[in-house]
Amino acid sequence: MQDFAEAVFDDPHGTRIALEVTAGAKHPAFPSGYNAWRKAIGCRVTAPALEGRANKAVIALVAATLDVPASAISIQSGQTSSQKKVLVAGRGKDEIINRLSRVL
Q1: Structural domains of the chain, ranges and CATH numbers in brackets
Q2: What average pLDDT does range 19-31 have in this prediction?
Q3: pTM of the entire predicted model
Q4: 44 and 30 Cβ atoms separated by less than 8 Å
Q5: What backbone torsions phi and psi does residue 51 show, to the nearest 5 degrees?
Q6: From CA 69, how far away is CA 82, in angstroms rounded?
Q7: What does R_g of the chain's alpha carbons equal in angstroms?
Q8: How far apart are CA 69 and CA 4, in angstroms?
């Protein structure tokens, strides 16, 4: 399923991914579906949306799923929103799409 490719963008520093985050979920999951209307990949974390806990959990989960160090992941926009753009530094769009395809 390549629909989620519309949520992955080239960036001069790596690749940006559009996420739709659910904080306080029962189980963490990334990717957890795809929202075609928002063109965002779902991401569920168990941490609450409180004091940056969910953001830290998103970074850790995305890094683990994509097999990159957490230091390569940063939230570019949406710090206080469920709609986030994360940057995966030093990784190309095709590499990210391939890794996500293997997880789905």
Answers
A1: 3-103 (3.30.1200.10)
A2: 97
A3: 0.94
A4: yes
A5: 55, 35
A6: 23
A7: 12
A8: 22
